[in-house]
Amino acid sequence: MQTLDNTSRRSFMKIAAAAGGGLFLGFNWTNASALPVVVDAKAVVAGSVSFNSYLSIGTDNIITIISPNPEIGQGIKTAFPMVIAEELDADWKLVKTVQGNLDPGAFERQVTGGSGAVPHSWERLRKAGATARHLLVEAAAARWKVPATECTTSDGKVYHKASGKSAMYGELAEEASKLTAPKDVKLKDEKDFKLIGQSVRNVDNHNIATGKPLFGLDFYREGMLFAIIQRPKAFGYKLKSVDSTAAKAMPGIVDVVTFENSVAVVGKSTWQAQKARQALKIEYEKAADLESSSDHARIFTNLLDNGEATVRRKNGDVESAFKNAAKVIKAEFQCPFLPHSPLEPMNFFAHVREDGVELVGPTQTPDRARGEVAKLTGFSPEKVSVEITRQGGGFGRRLAADFVVEAAHVSKLVKAPLKVVWTREDDMTGGIYRPAVRYRFEAALDKTGQLIGYKLRGVGMNAGNSTREDNFPSGAVENLLIDSVDHKSPITTGPWRAPITNFLAYAEQSFLDEVAEAAGKDPIQFRLELLEKAKKAPAGDVKYDVDRMIAVIKLAAEKSNWGKKKGVHQGFSVYFSHRSYVAQVGEVVMEKGKPVLKNIIAAVDCGIVINKSGSLQQVRGGVVDGFGHAMYGNMTFKDGTPDQSNFNGFRLIRMNEIPEVDVHFVDNGISPTGLGEPALPPTGGAVANAFYKATKQRLRNQPFIEEPAFKGIS
Amino acid sequence: MALFKLNVNKRAYQADVEGDTPLLWVLRDSLGLVGTKYGCGIAQCGACTVHLDGKAVRSCVLPVSAIGTGKVTTIEGLSEKGDHPVQKAWDEVDVAQCGYCQAGQIMTAAALLKEKPKPTEDEIVSGMSGNVCRCGTYHRIREAVKVAASKTN
Ligand code: FES
Ligand code: FES
User: Fold this and answer.
1) Residues in contact with B47: Cβ distance below 8 Å, sequence separation at least 6, in sequence order
2) What pTM was computed for the model?
3) B140: domain range?
């Protein structure tokens, strides 16, 4: 397995052609019903763009699959090829995967975000593999003069049992490439999957463990310069004046340039540029209101009380329900900003030349990067190339293209190839954040403990809608009102892993725990009763699959031995997001008077599990991320200036703080859905509800560590 | 600027840099050894961990002038073929998600096992807790250290 850079990718194509053919299969990522087309290798090399991705089988038996989607740690570069290899009956040892560069003419949806790549491509990938297999069988049958129906395949070979003949795919590839692709190709019965569902190791393991240059920050080129950029120190400031005399005189400094509100120090090494930046004398002036985190509770509460809310969902008559209620429960939940903190900070290489732009680096949205750079430089998008590197995490931060545009900006001004490098401080303070938000929930119970009314109002930030109004318990409550108000903040916000739901799910699931308690019901039983209602007498549209949700709830209850463990305080949570269903049970134990989260049991329905090893880790990693940020994550601002700037001030979870995470997948044969995000949202609620059982104190705000329940405990 | 002679991965190198340049940036920008990663620059995350005379150090806060004749080992030099027991365990356990922190994790683990070939679970956890993994691969890191320990004598 190896990653090929741009040049070697080109030569790989050439080699494939020179080797006298082999089978090139273009398949369409856009349209599941589009026919895969077999083309001859030469046509591909000649620059045909009518195919959306390429699978090639070399005469050396090596099967190469180009994976177009950015790899940020979600395992796509292993999972995609597995699906193709499954239908192809390939020998996995002979499969090589290659990261594709941006090529909108050839690929569709070259985006990593929304846990959407696998659901988007599942059918297409399978058809691509199955079509190639079909052609190889046809080629073998023709060569042996036997009926194709008598041939079988496995481990990269075609067999004809009766005659005892067999041939490797590589031997057949050239003949196969001359055949016409079938209109319709039969996919395997899922029961016959051999590779899908197995644990397959990350295809880049060896490169990672030996320190090979894989990441954007590892990209170097002869003569390349390094740029460190000073951005305004506070959100709401703009540049007034710059004195760069001292910085320019520092060793290794080539130039200092100013654009928009940024000052870029360009030097011969990262360190020299970093040091020279400290010698800049910059004055700023206030250009907008300056926001402080300490004002959020007041601002948000005011908006919840008096803001003009947009109705998101309305069922029944909420007013009467609350008027007639025997009991009303009300709670509010608030969270702070969060930086994404991918361990590889933002960086990008750009070379703005006379005839076009070359971009290399880590981006979740290469096409957006291209578009914005094209706009900046005045080139047409075709003149802007984007090479996608492996990325040291993304968490949504690399969906923006600001850092790519910056690189192009500086390269254009300096007229040199260069890499913009963000220090950790830049990454944490100059960025885009998970917005701080606040939710108000109200529930009305009748005398028998039935949930007869439900209200949710969210204050979002720069986002319009913060509510996900069609999620559970919508559909299960007759009288319901969900609305939202937006707060415009000068602090830039954007998607953060599991946007909105990364906090909303915790707030909602904590609230439902409170409601269940007020109703005198077991929290799991309470949810199951609501789901029964959603099924039998739905209130309005039900936009989640009730049965799938019930199944994960039951599985989590069973695997956690719910309610039956002595000395263990259990908390429950379930959430539907990114097409997947995840239920979790948090388990807290008191140790020396301190509540300690020991375990999380997760029941996951993401349809068919493609790579067991990768999927298991996605869930564990999502839980660790969800717990870590709910517990410790706190990014605050004073007058627009970040209070935290590095990992000494902003606390990330470490190994000594993790719970054990026990993962169970539902086996239901449904086409795979997302997994990069769905494990995260339910974690906060499961944890908060378990802590409540142990301490009798509700956790209403994040980070938990700042809540009264944890004061005096570290 | 001054010329510093360095011994990295048993090879002699020279770097013409200022004395306060952290070893991390000398490795990456001057010597082309990019396996050692930058994560925080203030000794908080461990991504930049290398060995100096066999001990794990944070190269982001180690000025090149402080190294003298010390022998530096980076991830590229941990083993010749990438078959150090820790590297093998990392593959066997399939630790990496994004992979960015893992060079630092591996170097920390290798130094830990050199000092304590049979660490207890607590020793593994305390030895590895200085290294951040933003993807949250901690369970597997812990497991891989155990696997590596079981295979070294
Ligand atoms: S980069 Fe050195 S410890 Fe983080
Ligand atoms: S694997 Fe991504 S930071 Fe550790």
Assistant:
1) A343, B37, B38, B39, B40, B100, B101, B103, B104, B131, B132
2) 0.93
3) 85-150
